[in-house]
Amino acid sequence: MSNPGTHSSRDRSSPIRGASSRGLVLGVAALLLSVLSFLAACTMGPFHVPLSTVWDVLTGAHGVDDTARVVVLDIRLSRAVLAWLAGAVLAVAGAAYQGVLRNPLADPFTLGVSSGGAFGAAIAIHIGLTGSLLAGSGLTALPLAALAGSLCALLVVLMLGRLAGPFRRETLVLAGIVVTTFLSACIAFVKSLDEEAVSAIVFWIMGSFQGRGWAHVLLFAPYAAIGTAVVFLLSKELDILALGDTQASQLGVNVDRSRMLLLFGASFAAAAAVAVSGIIGFVGLVVPHLVRLAIGGAHRPLLAVSALVGGLLLLWSDVLARIVLPGGAELPVGVVTALFGGPFFCVLLARRARRENA
Amino acid sequence: MTRYFCVFAALLCLLLPLSASAQVSITDDAGDAVTLDAPAARVISLYGAFNEIIAAMDLTDRLVARTRADELPPEITALPSIGTHMRPNVELILGLRPDLVFQMAGRRAAAGEAVAALRAKGITVTVFDIHTFNGLFSAITRMGVLLGAEGKAGELISSMQSRLDAVTQAIGTVPHRPSVFFEVRYPNLLAVGRGSMVNDVIRAAAGANCVDSPRKLVRLNEEELLRLDPDVYVVQQGPMNPDPLPPSERPHFRTLAAVQSGHIYTVDEQLFSRPGPRSVDAVEELAAALYPHLFDNTGEKP
Fold first, then answer.
1. Three state DSSP letters for B101-162
2. Per the UniProt record, which residue ranges are transmembrane (chain A) (predicted)?
3. Burial status of residue B61 (CB atoms within 10 A of its CB: 0-12, 13-18, 19 or more)
4. Which residue from B185, B219, B251 is facing A215, i.e. has the nearest CB?
5. Which band of pLDDT confidence, cut at 50, 70 and 90, is reported for residue B294?
6. Residues A90 and A288 sit within 8 Å (Cβ to Cβ)
7. What is the pLDDT of residue A298?
8. Cα separation of B207 and A209, whole Å?
9. Burial class (CB within 10 angstroms; exposed 0-12, middle 13-18, buried 19+) of A4
10. Which of A26, A239, B74, B181 could lock B230 by a disulfide, CB 3.0 to 4.6 Å apart?
11. Other CB atoms closer than 10 Å to residue A246's CB: what's the count?
12. DSSP state of A326
């Protein structure tokens, strides 16, 4: 992270203004691309729907075939919306985590949200909580169990982090690792109890939007909105926290409280994403890095542009997951993001190393 | 020395016909030759369907153990459990001194590892891989050989075959075979492909599996299901699908022909997915669902 406090204001004005105008350009571009991508996603899939029919469905024309309507609105569009929102939330949460923990390797799952969700889901699958919860919505107890698991794990991690006295970033990251490892063992235990459910649990953990619909969007939206709103409201504090605790306190920021609020908000939103989609890696890790390279580290534009780029990335990953295999089979979307994200992250690291050595 | 040798050779010659007369051997579905000096008296099946076949041949007293989930035939629950189909406990099996262990071939490596571990300890293991009625009959025949009960095996096969023929005759020639979708699991929709026993059950009940894939299990997305639009939707309920949401309540399913016409049937997973004597019951049940005008409500032949 560059420290903007070391330059005089005149030197600083041009790169900062350059960065912010770049952020604006990038943000507007990502927004336009997102709208186009929603339209494009509606036209792609194994069920053949002519473009004119897609347009008729989207514009609400009468006399459209009912099956085409279900395919375009209830399957393709709802998944595109859910994937975009989940991607946006994961990228925002990742940026917030990286800022608060001042650790480039932090991602939305650093504090055990993912393994908590996976454990909740594994228990739900093992007990067989796949029956209907709300008639006709297709919503089951599974995402709620995952959400409960995520939030419990998060609370345990935060409590462990507090046990050791005042806030220490390393303690919190360690607590996250311990809880994640312990819960992974618990998941393995459930798997070995229940051979029949192993593949269902494994598939859930790999992350997928298969079979999700508008009900999941509605379930996810409030949690995601609350979590991301908290993060956005504290974006100035994120900038100040980057200066270090002493300086931040001198500037009148309640360091402990804003840090807790930020972590909680980001985790809350990430937990909701895990609940509806399983564990989708790399989006929360890679997107903030990428955006930071493009527009710099000021958090308000960083968060906004990260959200747009993360949404785009996950939307297209899900489209690929839907159409890449022949015969209507699906890839888990978490596999797609990992296949792209892994090599991409290596390139980012190499570039960063080159820049720092230059 | 030579005299000893002659005596020994003479004894050997006396013994040979004895052992040869009792010796039984077959080739299993993994291509391995399985030879026993005498028909097996102590048998363990690592897959429930084999217990049902053995019980149908009236040889339940040969079974010395069961896997954890086995409940059929009922008297089997008194036997000790030796773990699961995928992860049988080698130590427990060794302790029961079986002459023969039956295993069903699995897609996953775990089942194969279990076989290798048992063979390494000197236990005879026979692996069958069944996904059609012909394969089932062939496996029953070979089980009959290894258990010294070819007659019983033949009776079982002919009684099953005659019931299958009765279903085929009752249906007769049909102009259009209804297309059938068989759900293995939901959510994360999993269907049966051509490589599953269920596929042959559907065929024997004069239906047509609408999923055209050589695999045993196929993962599909909802859109593909809408494209296939089957006439009949069958949901299995059991360990793989403990509490399936009724298809009529699923958000993406409402336009399916099977949902709108109400041609949705819930069936017992173990009855349909396990290749065994009861696979014929499955055929009769499905035929009665596909052709209700030809069978009365009990699924029995009129």
1. EEEECCCCHHHHHHHHHHHHCCCCEEEECCCCHHHHHHHHHHHHHHCCCHHHHHHHHHHHHH
2. 20-42, 77-97, 109-129, 141-160, 172-193, 214-234, 261-290, 302-325, 331-350
3. exposed
4. B251
5. confident
6. no
7. 92
8. 32
9. middle
10. B181
11. 9
12. G
**What distance in Å separates the CA atoms of residue A124 and residue A134, rounded to the nearest whole number?**
16
Show which residues on chain A lie within 8 Å of chain B, measured between beta carbons. 45-48, 66-67, 69-71, 74-76, 128-132, 135-138, 140, 142, 192, 195-196, 200, 203-204, 208, 210-211, 213-215, 322, 327-330
* CB nearest A75 (choices: B185, B219, B223): B223
User: What's the alpha-carbon Rg for chain B, to the nearest Å?
Assistant: 23
Whole-prediction pTM value? 0.85
Alpha helices in chain A (DSSP H): 9-42, 51-58, 66-69, 78-101, 113-127, 141-163, 169-193, 198-205, 214-233, 235-241, 245-250, 255-277, 283-295, 299-323, 333-357
- pLDDT at position B232 is 97
Q: Identify whether the C-beta of residue A50 lies closer than 8 Å to the C-beta of residue A38.
A: no
Phi-psi region of B278 (alpha: psi -120 to 50; beta: other; left: phi over 0): alpha
- Token look-up 């995952």 returns A146
The structure tokens listed for A165 are 């006295």
> Rounded CA gap, A237 and A299, in Å?
9
Q: What is the pairing mode between strands B100-104 and B179-185? A: unpaired
**Distance (Å, whole) CA A82 – CA A64:** 24
pLDDT confidence bin for A351, thresholds 50/70/90: confident
Mean pLDDT over all residues of chain B? 89
Instruction: For residues B142 and B138, give the distance between their C-alpha atoms in angstroms, rounded to a whole number.
Output: 6
Closest CA to A123 of A156, A88, A148: A148
Beta carbon pairs, A and B, within 8 Å: 107
Name residue B266's beta-bridge partners.
B235
Tokens of A34: 């997102």
Cβ atoms of A143 and A275 within 8 Å: the answer is yes
Tokens found for residue B79 = 């036997």
Q: Tens digits of per-residue pLDDT, B136-167?
A: 999 999 999 999 999 999 999 999 999 999 99
- Whether B247 contacts B259, CB under 8 Å: yes
Q: How far apart are CA A70 and CA B250, in angstroms?
A: 12
